[in-house]
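About this split. The held-out portion is used to measure sequence recovery: a designer receives only the structure tokens and must propose an amino acid at every position. Recovery is the fraction of positions where the proposal matches the reference. Here is one held-out target exactly as it appears in the evaluation file.
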């Protein structure tokens, strides 16, 4: 009788699929664990970040009696919009909002106009010392603004524009143009030179090239800088209290200080004033957030 041979047990080779399957399963579990941990951490940080904002929003719609009886951190038992009217009219937030818009809108337009013209010349033409000029413009933004408070205040007095909104506009334009030129220079420099050469062949001059070709192509970067500069200028407090003294000329950020002094214990009115002050910048950012991210990324990558 022939002896039967027991089949050999394979531990490897093409048919041994257990070790690769185990490795793939462990890799999938690791990726899932990392993804879950990332989302949990990001969610927790988002909650911690949004919690103070939610507290301000809820406080702004509560009555003073509710806060005084149950505490600011308690569950709200009232709802009213009268706090916003009180902050807007009696607290002077309405007039301060007008001052902020008078300063912010012209400053954004003038800054981007000057920055785009300077960036166009530095990026599209072989000007002497253009790199040095660009570095000088950028280096001005590296100085701490605190060391320039007294010189700026004295200079505004010498020029004769102290305690005027024109002084605040000039300061904001002077300290913002350098950064805007740096960003727009990187964007405009990446525009193909063939487009400009074709325009020159067709008889276009520098102004036509700038206004009809370069500016439309730089629209994403201009939109991003518009949102960024609006937020910076509208929320500025340092330069406002440096070159302005009259309460009726203060922008809304400086007006919040006076509102806090006027309504010391009325936290609902102070919270309503804070919401009013934050509303324009939030609206602008939400409107331009797509351009804000895409424009800055294009300018940095190109």
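Reference sequence for scoring:
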């Amino acid at each position: 009788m022939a002896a039967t041979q027991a089949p050999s047990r394979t531990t490897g080779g093409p048919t041994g699929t257990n070790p690769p399957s185990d490795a793939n399963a462990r890799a999938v579990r690791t990726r899932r664990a990392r993804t879950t941990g990332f989302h949990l951490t990001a969610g927790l940080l988002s909650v911690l970040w949004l919690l103070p904002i939610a507290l301000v929003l809820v406080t702004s719609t509560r009555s003073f009696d509710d806060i005084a009886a149950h505490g600011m951190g308690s569950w709200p038992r009232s709802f009213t919009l009268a706090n916003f009217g009180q902050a807007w009219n009696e607290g002077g937030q309405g007039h301060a909002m007008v001052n902020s818009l008078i300063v912010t809108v012209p400053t954004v337009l003038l800054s981007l106009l000057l920055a785009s013209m300077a960036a166009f010349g530095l990026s599209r033409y072989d000007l002497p010392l253009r790199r040095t000029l660009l570095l000088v413009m950028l280096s001005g933004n590296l100085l701490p603004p605190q060391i320039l408070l007294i010189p700026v205040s004295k200079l505004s007095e010498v020029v004769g524009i102290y305690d005027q909104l024109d002084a605040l506009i000039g300061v904001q334009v002077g300290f913002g143009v350098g950064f805007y030129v740096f960003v727009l220079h990187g964007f405009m420099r990446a525009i193909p030179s063939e487009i400009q050469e074709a325009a020159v062949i067709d008889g276009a001059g520098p102004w036509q090239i700038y206004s009809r070709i370069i500016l439309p192509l730089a629209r994403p970067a201009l939109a991003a800088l518009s949102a960024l500069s609006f937020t910076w200028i509208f929320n500025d407090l340092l330069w406002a209290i440096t070159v302005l003294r009259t309460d009726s000329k203060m922008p809304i950020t400086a007006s919040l200080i006076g509102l806090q002094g006027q309504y010391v214990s009325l936290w609902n009115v102070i919270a309503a004033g804070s919401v009013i002050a934050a509303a324009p910048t939030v609206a602008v950012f939400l409107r331009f957030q797509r351009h804000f991210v895409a424009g800055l990324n294009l300018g940095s990558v190109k």
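Annotator remark: Residues 18-60 form the longest helix (43 residues).
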